[in-house]
Amino acid sequence: MSLDTPRPGTRLERLPTHEALQRLEHERNSRLTQLRALDEAGADAEEHVVSAQKDTVRRVLAEVEAAFTRVRDGNYGSCLDCAEPIPVERLEILPYTRFCVPCRRDTA
Hints:
The chain is mostly helical. It contains 4 helices and no strands.
């Protein structure tokens, strides 16, 4: 079975708003903690590695913030490419995702 094919029992209903917000808040807090840790690494870490890590964390934070906007706008949980519902299981793992697996694969 591939990731393109929904598994039997896949929940296609929407993730409840309160649960989506809770997961997004957790992601935001985790990424902010990572940024603080990277800032505190200071001179002990190689600058280019820390810089790359900070860039990655900032990109994810931007995705999280965009997901909060989608929740407020009522678009959260719909693929931005095909407009189909993103399976709840995917949103539970990656709450800030913008795409279902097939569309994400096409954009990669």
